[in-house]
Design brief:
alpha+beta, 13 strands, autocatalytic cleavage, Glutamine Phosphoribosylpyrophosphate, subunit 1, domain 1, peptidase activity, Isoaspartyl peptidase, about 25% strand
C-alpha cells in the first residue's frame, strides 16, 4: 500500500497586485509553478526521498527567469549575481548550505552536495565554488544570469541610494524574491529547500535568511518542514522556521496555528513582511503570509494540484 506523500513550493511573497498583472505574465508564472511542483511530485510518486524531491522542484524554479533565484537572480551593487541556498533533510536533521556563489547554475544542488558529500554544513564564496567544481558542477559565466529587467532594477535602486528586491515597473516588483519547497516522502521523511538571488543593490557580501538553517529553512521528521520568503533580516532575527517547528514540537500546536502565530504575530509587528510554506508529518500543507500575495503551488495527499498567487485565493 502506498504511504502518504505530498509537496509544496513557493516563488516569493510580497506586494503582488492582480490589477498590474497581465494575463500573459500570469500564465507564465502559473505554468512555471505547476511545472516545478509536478517535477518534485514525480520524484515522490516513484518512491524517491523528500530531499531529492525538493531539490528537483527548486531547480526548476532556479531555471525560470520569473523568480529571484538561479537565472532570474537580482544584481548586487557591483552588477554581479550572488546566490544563497540551503537544504535540510528531516532524518537526523542533515543540512547543507551555501552563500555568495557567482558561477553555479543551480545553487540548490550545490547545497545538497554540501549535505551529502562534505564534512561541513555551510560553505561560502570562493570556497563553496571550489567545492562545487570538485563535485562536478560546471562553471557558469555571469552572462547566463544577466537580464535587462534586473539591470534596470539595479540602476533604479542606485539612483535612489536604496537596496530592495526591485521597483514598481513590474506587477510583482515589491516582492521578496526567494524560491523554496517542502515535501513528505513515502518513508515519512520531511525535507525543505530554499534558494535566492538576494536583494537588488546589496553590498558587503550580504546574506539573508535563505541560507540560514532555522531562519529560512527547517525540516524535522515526525514534525514539520518549512521554507520561508520575506525580509531576510527580520526572518533571521526571529528564527522564523525553527520557531514554527518549536511551537509544534513543544506546544503541540497544529500546523496552521503555529505558522500563522509567527507570521502574523511578532514578525508582522516588527514590519517583517513575507510568508512561508510548511508541511507536517501527516502531509498536511499550510501557506501563511502577511503580504498581499505569494507565488505558491502544491500537490496534496490525494494528488490534487493547486496553484495560487494572491493572498485572498
Amino acid at each position: 500500500m502506498t504511504k502518504p506523500f505530498a509537496i509544496a513550493i513557493h516563488g516569493g511573497a510580497g506586494t503582488i497586485l492582480s490589477s498590474q498583472m497581465t494575463e500573459t505574465h500570469h500564465q507564465q508564472i502559473v505554468s512555471a509553478l505547476e511545472t516545478a511542483v509536478c517535477a518534485g511530485y514525480q520524484v515522490l510518486k516513484q518512491g524517491g526521498d523528500a530531499l531529492e524531491a525538493v531539490v528537483v522542484a527548486v531547480t526548476h524554479l532556479e531555471n525560470s527567469p520569473h523568480f529571484n533565484a538561479g537565472c532570474g537572480s537580482v544584481l548586487t551593487h557591483k552588477e554581479m549575481v550572488e546566490m544563497d541556498a540551503s537544504v535540510m533533510f528531516g532524518d537526523q536533521k542533515q543540512v547543507g548550505a551555501i552563500a555568495g556563489v557567482r558561477h553555479i547554475k543551480n545553487p540548490i544542488t550545490l547545497a545538497r552536495d554540501v549535505l551529502k558529500h562534505s564534512q561541513h554544513v555551510f560553505l561560502v564564496g570562493d570556497g563553496a565554488e571550489e567545492f562545487a567544481f570538485e563535485q562536478g558542477h560546471t562553471y557558469t559565466e555571469q552572462d547566463y544570469f544577466f537580464t535587462d529587467r534586473r539591470y534596470e532594477q539595479l540602476q533604479s535602486m542606485k539612483e535612489k541610494g536604496l537596496f530592495a528586491l526591485s521597483e514598481s515597473s513590474y506587477p510583482d516588483d515589491k516582492k521578496f524574491g526567494t524560491v523554496g519547497s517542502v515535501a513528505l516522502d513515502q518513508s515519512g521523511n520531511l525535507a525543505a529547500a530554499t534558494s535566492t538571488g538576494g536583494v537588488t543593490n546589496k553590498k558587503y557580501g550580504r546574506v539573508g535568511d535563505s541560507a540560514v538553517i532555522g531562519a529560512g529553512t527547517f525540516a524535522e521528521n515526525n514534525n514539520v518542514a518549512i521554507s520561508t520568503t520575506g525580509m531576510g533580516e527580520a526572518f533571521i532575527r526571529h528564527t522564523v522556521a525553527s520557531d514554527v517547528a518549536a511551537r509544534m514540537r513543544y506546544l503541540n500546536e497544529e500546523i496552521n496555528v503555529a505558522c500563522d502565530s509567527v507570521i502574523h504575530g511578532e514578525l508582522k509587528n516588527i514590519g517583517g513582511e513575507g510568508g512561508l510554506i510548511a508541511i507536517n508529518d501527516k502531509g498536511e500543507i499550510h501557506f501563511s503570509m502577511n503580504s498581499l500575495g505569494m507565488y505558491r503551488a502544491s500537490i496534496d495527499l490525494d494528488g490534487n494540484v493547486s496553484v495560487k498567487i494572491y493572498a485572498d485565493e
